[in-house]
Design brief:
Helix content is about 45%, strand content about 15%. The chain is of the alpha/beta class and about 300 residues long.
Amino acid sequence: MHKDRTSIGAHTFEGQALRWSLEGEVLEIDLHRAPCNELGTVALEELEALLRTLEWIAHRVRAVLFYSSVEKGFCAGADLVELQRGLSHLEPDAEVDESTYATLRDFVDRIHRVFRRIDHLPVPTLTAVHGFCFGGGFELALCADLVIADRSARFCFPELRLGLIPGFGGIPRLRRKAGEALALDLLLSGRSIQAQRAHALGFVSQVVGRGEALDVARRLAAQTLFYDRGAIFELKRLTKRNIDNELRTEREVFLKLLTAPAARASLSDFVARKNDPHAYLPRTPSAIDIDDLRRAQAPA
């Protein structure tokens, strides 16, 4: 178990991937792990600890705000190095053994439970986004009620380039926010889109100047404190369509693809050439996004 500094009495926490503090009635969560807040077991454990804290102090919390203090961006997605490491002992065409599959399923099931609980928190949830918001990071942002993006933000689901689909709830949540046509367009193209385009398509609430997303999100969170807690709960219950069946289907398909030889080969290739900015030539739009993903997940 990793070391952290926790003070429940002061409602603060500092871990390897997250730090949070209760600022008045707003719980602020800072993703701070370089290179770009990859979602692996460390981040998952700390997200689970966050939700336990929210249970303890639910009566004190009127809004929840996620942001990143990492220069590269909000989150570059799943920790692909850790994911590939868990599969690296297998021969290229070998079937995944029961133990490995159970470990992968446990991780995916846990992260689905975390994202679902964030999605269904009874208080307003906001995300301030800058820079890279790719893959699993995009899926986390889609759990929030409001996404405030600065002009540097870029959103992308590059999973098809790796023989995968989004596996943390991204497809149902993107369809819920912006519709099926947009979801298919983003998923099949694998391209990244800028904040202004994301706003026009409906899954970003506001676009602000560079470096301003957190301040604007804080002001919005403060505004929600004037509203009745019960009214907000009912509003969220009515406006957030139930997608549990779709989430279960996505999870099963993701695990099926993740354990297939094609995805395992793609992950190995990605990790082997992670720091190579010219790994794909000629540079098609989708290849550019994969190179961006490499840069996002590479050490500074």
